[in-house]
Amino acid sequence: MPNLRLYICIWTLVWKPLPCTDRVASNSEAQTLPYSSTVLGGNMVMTFVFSLLLLLVGPAICGGTFSDLFQPYWAPQNVAVDDDADQTKLSLDASSGCGFESKKKYLFGLASMQIKLVEGDSAGTVTAFYMSSDGPNHDELDFEFLGNVSGEPYLVQTNVYVNGTGNREQRHTLWFDPTQDFHTYSLFWNRRCVLFLVDGIPIRAFVSKEVSGIPYPRSQPMGVRASVWNADDWATQGGRVKTDWSHAPFVSTFRSFQIDACDLLEDGSGTEVVTRCTESGQFWWDKPEFDGLDRHRNRQLRRVQRKHLVYDYCRDKLRFSDQLPRECVA
């Protein structure tokens, strides 16, 4: 696996980790901005390197067509697969949304795909890219793209479920129009940190605080999934703007699927996969180099939070009756 060795070698040279941080901007700092590139600023080397590394490791380790990696799990008639063009389209109409899921489940690693979101009036719709285990006490890591009326920006909602409990939402605007071109959305997950990345730029870090008795998703293998569905009871302006079905079908397009993660063997039990996937140092994401973010990426995270964060559950004292979740104060 020469590409993987090169990948780790390059990363070791450029990645100077700091402790993962989930520090966010205050409400007074957060701004709702139209699509703007000013959030990036500064040195773009680390963003380029991250993208380069994904390209290096992807084709050798985890790249594949939709049919190699995924299968429809909901309304297959609305899932249009074109492996030759490396594109899959999910359509929402008045009768149904739809979705696809990975053929395997994974415990720790990196999953990413490029997405071009619903154009025009997408109010009431949600396009989701996420990882999830099964059952009522499931773990889940969410990207949810909340549609809006024409000319208004999408909101990106991220959420983390642990043992069936979510309510850990953050919402951001983006610094580009996600309906005009494909952009890469990635979930990085190891025993210490979950990172939500957009074009290689971290927009959120969810840090393990298990030493303080706070649950963290570390034992349930998760599938990689995507879906498009109607959520006009809450998705756009708190549900005040409903889906206009005269604009249906609402189509989001997916391509460039990459999964580099520890997979659940077909004949393996849950106990076996947890042991295999958590053995210290066996996988690249367990290396000390991945204990946190380098200084540049920490600055990027803070800049995104300052300029594009519009909601953070850790600041919502009214919602939690002044009893914020423990991870917000630990």
TrEMBL record:
Keyword Signal: yes
UniProt domain GH16: residue ranges: 28-254
GO cellular component, one term: apoplast
Compartment(s) of residence: Secreted, Cell wall; Secreted, Extracellular space, Apoplast
Sugar-modified residues: N148
Keyword Lipoprotein in annotation: no
Primary subcellular site in the record, as a coarse category: secreted
Function noted in UniProt: Catalyzes xyloglucan endohydrolysis (XEH) and/or endotransglycosylation (XET). Cleaves and religates xyloglucan polymers, an essential constituent of the primary cell wall, and thereby participates in cell wall construction of growing tissues.
Active-site residues, Swiss-Prot/TrEMBL: E140, E144
GO biological process, one term: cell wall biogenesis
UniProtKB keywords: Apoplast, Cell wall, Cell wall biogenesis/degradation, Disulfide bond, Glycoprotein, Glycosidase, Hydrolase, Membrane, Secreted, Signal, Transferase, Transmembrane, Transmembrane helix
Family according to the record: Belongs to the glycosyl hydrolase 16 family.
PTM info: Contains at least one intrachain disulfide bond essential for its enzymatic activity.
InterPro entries xrefs: Beta-glucanase-like, Beta-glucanase/XTH, Beta_glucanase, ConA-like_dom_sf, GH16_AS, XET_C, XTH
Enzyme Commission number(s) from the entry: 2.4.1.207
Protein name listed in UniProt: Xyloglucan endotransglucosylase/hydrolase
Species whose genome carries this gene: Punica granatum
Broadest EC class assigned to this enzyme: transferase
GO molecular function terms attached to this record: hydrolase activity, hydrolyzing O-glycosyl compounds; xyloglucan:xyloglucosyl transferase activity
Regions crossing the membrane: 44-66
Signal sequence segment: none
PROSITE patterns reported in the protein's UniProt record: GH16_1, GH16_2
Taxonomic lineage from the root: Eukaryota, Viridiplantae, Streptophyta, Embryophyta, Tracheophyta
